[in-house]
Amino acid sequence: MSRFLQFLALSILMMRSATADPCTSAKSLAYIQERVVGYSGDNNIGDYRLPKAWYKLPPGYKLATTSKPCGTVFNWWTNDTLPSSGSGIINVCRNTYTDDCDQTRKINVTLCTVCTNEYYVYELEATNSNLDAYCIDETIMKPVISSHIKKYSDPDYNSLEFYCKLNKLNTELYYDFEWNLYSGASKLQSLRLVENVTFNNETDFLERTKLTEKHLEEKNITKPGFTIICTVKAGICNISTSNPMFVGVKISTQLPNRIEQQKTLEIQFKLTVPFGCFEGQDCTLGFHMVQGNKTATNRTSSNLVSHLVQHQSKDGRACGFELKNVSDTATFTVAAKIGVNQRTTHSRVYELLFTTNLRHPPHPFFESYVLPSIKVELKVDQQILQYKGCLSIADPHLKTFDGSWYEQHSNGTFILYRHKTLPAEVQTKTKKCANITGHCNCGVAVRAGRDIFQINNCDGTIPPRYVQCKNDVRQMNINRKNNIYTINLPHGTKVELKITPTGFINIYIYPSLADVNATEGLCGYFDNNTENDFTRRNGSIEKFDNDSWKVLDSEDLFNNQTHAANTSKEVSFCECSNFLPEFFANTACSKPRTYTKDTTCTYRKKKKKKRDVSVSYFDGYTDPTTAFKPTFVQNNAISGAAFHLEEHSRHKRQTTYTNETARAACLDMMNTTVFQMCKSLPDLDIDGYIDSCVLDAVISGSMKWTIEHLESIKQNCIYFVEVMQPLPQELLDLLVVLPDINSNDYDNGTYEYQPLPPQNESSVSDPITTELFQELLEMICSNECSGNGMCINGSCHCDEPYINFDCSINKTEPPIMLGIPDRGECDLQNRPCVETSVFGQNIAEIGTLTCRTTYFTIDRNNNINVGQSVDVPGYYESMNEIICPLPISTLERSVDQLDGVLAYGYQISFSNDGTAFSEADTIVIYDSLCVNCTKVGEDIVCTTKDGYCVTGGRCYVPGITLGCYTCSDDEWMAGQDCPSDDEILKGWMIGVICVSVVVVVIIIIIVTIVCLCGKSRRNKKIAVYMDSLDVNARDFNSCKRSINSNDF
Predict the structure, then answer these.
(1) Sheet holding 961-962: strands in order across?
(2) What's the pLDDT at 562?
(3) pLDDT at residue number 1032
(4) Which three-class secondary structure state does DSSP give residue 1012?
(5) Rounded Cα distance, 404 and 395, in Å
(6) What's the rounded Cα separation, in Å, for the pair 22 and 170?
(7) In what order do the strands lie in the sheet with 132-134?
(8) What is the pLDDT of residue 1023?
(9) Are the C-beta atoms of residues 874 and 883 closer than 8 Å to each other?
(10) Among residues 444, 456, 451, which one has the least CA distance to residue 470?
(11) pLDDT < 70 regions, the chain
């Protein structure tokens, strides 16, 4: 019986449901604004979970009758005619990417009427996926919200106001206006209600119904970043609601917000309302970026893992952007700064925040306006870079990025590495070695943009220098440790240059992700495929055709002006601080650069030296040419000579080697503890170095190259062990496993980021550990300390009398002078000339560098007057350059009297220990405004220019007075106050006589005192006081009175 009653009740409910009036029982369909055809907002909707029921649309809306999309991926619409009365059945279909109806269904529809307003209700059911939704059309003119700035003059301030405008107004009706906060499909809060408003004229009507900042403040709304709607009721039944209006800055990105590898993410910002400026001024609304996770940002400064950097905006603002007026749009680009760790895939989620300044006086409503946070996913996988590197070592042997070894035995300048799309390149210059078979890397040029770092020992030892273009900023990060230069290019590629004691250069290039499938040159095409490593310039593949990559004249980076004519425009990225400052965050970034074809390039040095933080001027040379002719030069690349290598002490020279004996000898010389440790790394290509050592021994009949192969093994080993270090736990805590962007969970927004599983550092199968890295650092010393010392904790402890980081220099032997650049000439019109570079050989970085400077002057007859010598500390710049301060500058020398000096200068020599000095070269200092000086052989010739007077090496224009002398044309004219020649002679004579008298008096006084003091020993009653050697008559009389008062 109970089951029958349950069945009967259920049947009654079903009958009532079937017979219920859909006009009164229909539910409101949510997300009306997103369903409107043409919706351009950020919200995507889906009806996958929509319950089957009758749904009503507000008056003025109906199911879409066009295939155009709304706020969904696949839109449902109808091309049937809706019933003009009662109920009916219509066909609906789903529109896809191909704009066709791939799915169709039938739905019931009923026309309803309330208060003479007609509207439709529809019986809808769930769609097949969360990417589908029903779209609708608007059929009436709704109220439109507009915004404007109201200016007030007393005091001077601005206020944001909103109007709710209607297309047609009736003077016979009463209108009710309600302003509301809006979110999604619901009204959150009433902001203002205005009732029973009649229409007289539009201006008065809008003023009485507007929404102002004052109304917002009453509801505790003091910043932008909210959405409003206005609802209008006319008479009893006519109700119409505006489209929502977002007040603030809209943010849009191309989903998903993910940066992978070298890609970038663009974030767009659009201002929806105006902001106020002071009267008569144009102003902007500036935003700067901070990172929401401060702790995480600081931790990643270790540069082990990748992190975000921000593109500098077009207006030059670092880590921010500006909006000028309503509807203005700004684009902000975010990229990844690739870390060095190659051990794991780096995945991390960042929260980015953008905010205005703490103060915006023209319109305080926009102060400290913080935009909604933006989640950006960063994923970088560098495992393709593990153990990858191109090298050119010894005589030289080359290894491509993908691991192919081959030989380079020809003279010339070659493209070693060049990026196909980025302005990055490495060129190498080779020449014949003198006392051994093979060629040597005698020069290297590294380019980033239009800036070049050069080392060129091919035609004389010229120190490394940075060629910087006019109006430019540095694009490379250059560091030096001992004899190794490390150049970090902007796109992450690292170049290491090791200058050997004999002058040639070993080159190591470690690629970045930007190099994958994008390199050319002798290093090969980097794609993990050795088959195309020997691609020629024309695209064909022919092994060992090295000449294909010889540089053309228009490509030569050793010609300073070659690259100056090439125009290019480069982006710059900034690293932003993660705090909220008063105005803008402190940033570290380079400036955007636009080049012109007439740009020139010059040698540049650091503007500030570590030795003197107050030095802020440029006092470097512009031309490395010297005029010095050394008596003795070591046998290397100097003056066109070729490189020479010395036989290692562990192996005597022999005339022939077989492959077997050479391999045994190479392994014997390389058999060090460090070699054995590096050999244990499974993926480090040790065999290639050994094979190269064997080949050199067989060809040359010696072991001269072996030490270079061992050094290259150590160089690569320490690099790869460093970049393959296990990540510390504090960095692992920041990393996550990112979702698959193709998964349904990701599309539905239900995915949760998972922490990265911890790495097992104690795994027996993992040979790379932190302990291994530290142990290698303690055992690796440069050049095995040259056989002249012991390697202790990573540093050479040299035997006497050897010094330097590798114990390669005998301090008792004088270093070799190679000359002073700019041909030993320094023009005061171009630089201060308070210091100079000096080129040489056997310069020790670790020692007591001393410059011996001997001052001299040059008069009108080109006579040289030599002064005293002064020893001053020298400062190490490179293995071939020191900086010598010049102890007497033009600012220190007196010019109160005419001395006839046209120019001055110094003889300079230098020493590693302050005892054994090199030969001396000279530098002449002059002011080209009035004097020209040139060095001709060992002579210096100076001539004056018309129209100037000269004294003390300084120039004076006519009319200038110096003491009692006045410059007239190019001569000094004596004034009335100047003494005559007779007066000068008389003064000299009086001076001589006075001096002579004083000297005689002093002698007499000293003799008398000595005698009297001798007598005083008998009675011990004499006391003689002398305050100084400058004894005058008063002192003498006082002493005399004291003596006379005693008994003798």
Answers:
(1) 961-962, 965-968, 971-974
(2) 60
(3) 41
(4) helix
(5) 17
(6) 33
(7) 27-28, 53-56, 117-124, 101-114, 87-95, 74-77, 132-134
(8) 36
(9) yes
(10) 451
(11) 1-19, 115-117, 140-141, 154, 185, 235-238, 291-302, 310-318, 434-437, 460-462, 466-475, 544, 560-618, 630-655, 737-766, 888-897, 980-998, 1007, 1009-1048
CA–CA dist 1017, 1026 (Å, integer): 18
Parallel/antiparallel/unpaired status of strands 601-604 and 462-469: antiparallel
Which pLDDT score is estimated for 990?
62
Distance of alpha carbon 466 from the chain centroid:
17
Number of continuous H segments (helices) and E segments (strands) in the chain: 15, 66
Q: Which two tokens stand for residue 268?
A: 């767009």
Q: Is the dihedral of CA 608, 613, 617, 620 positive or negative?
A: negative
Give SS3 for 481: strand
- Of 898, 912, 904, 956, give the one whose Cα is nearest residue 930: 956
Q: Which residue has the tokens 């060049």?
A: 418
| Calpha distance 399→685 (Å, rounded) | 10
Rounded to whole angstroms, how far apart are CA atoms 262 and 247? Answer: 35
**Tokens 């896809």 belong to residue:** 96
Dihedral of CA atoms 895, 899, 900, 906 in degrees, nearest 10, equals: -80
Contacts of 47 (CB under 8 A, 6+ apart): 76, 124, 126, 127, 132, 133, 134
The token duo for 162 is 């909103």
Tokens of 85: 């009365």
pLDDT score of 916: 95
Indicate the helix (H) or strand (E) that contains 570. Answer: strand 569-570
d(CA 197, CA 230): 15
The span from the CA of 163 to the CA of 205, in Å, is 10
pLDDT of residue 434: 62
- What is the SS3 assignment for 663? helix
Residue 311 confidence (pLDDT): 63
Q: List the structure tokens of 1026.
A: 């002398």
Report the pLDDT value the prediction gives residue 298, as an integer from 0 to 100. 37
| Helix (H) or strand (E) segment spanning residue 717 | helix 706-723
Contact 376, 308 (CB under 8 A): yes
Angle among Cα 453, 397, 499 to the nearest 5 degrees reads 40
Task: Compute how many other C-beta atoms are within 10 angstroms of the C-beta atom of residue 769.
Answer: 16
The rounded distance, in Å, linking the Cα atoms of 586 and 1042 is 76
Amino acid at 781: C
Task: Quote the DSSP letter at residue 1010.
Answer: H
* 373 DSSP assignment: P
Q: 688 and 404 in contact (C-beta within 8 Å)?
A: no
Question: What is the DSSP code (8-state) at residue 640?
Answer: G
Q: Which of 416, 602, 593 is CA-nearest to residue 519?
A: 416
The CB-side HSE value for 216 (13 A sphere, CA atoms) comes to: 19
Q: Is the dihedral of CA 252, 253, 254, 256 positive or negative?
A: negative
Report yes or no: 33 and 229 within 8 Å, Cβ to Cβ.
no
DSSP for 434-460 reads SSSSSEEEEEEEEEETTEEEEEE-BTB
- The pLDDT assigned to 690 comes to 94
User: Do residues 736 and 753 make contact, with C-beta atoms less than 8 angstroms apart?
Assistant: yes
Beta bridge partners of 249: 271
Residue with tokens 């700064």: 337
For residue 6, give every residue at least 6 positions away whose Cβ sits within 8 Å of its Cβ, in sequence order, or none.
Answer: none
In contact, 526 and 510? CB cutoff 8 Å: no
SS3 1041: helix
Amino acid type, 529:
N
Cα distance between residue 192 and residue 210, in whole Å: 9
Per-residue HEC secondary structure of 959-997 comes to CCEECCEEEECCEEEECCCCCCHHHHHHHHHHHHHHHHH
Give residue 373's pLDDT: 87
DSSP 896-945: SS---EEEEEEEEEEESSSSSB---EEEEEE-TTTEEEEEETTEEEEEE-
Q: Note the pLDDT of residue 898.
A: 79
CA gap 699, 774 in Å, rounded: 38
Angle ∠(709,714,715) on CA atoms, nearest 5: 95
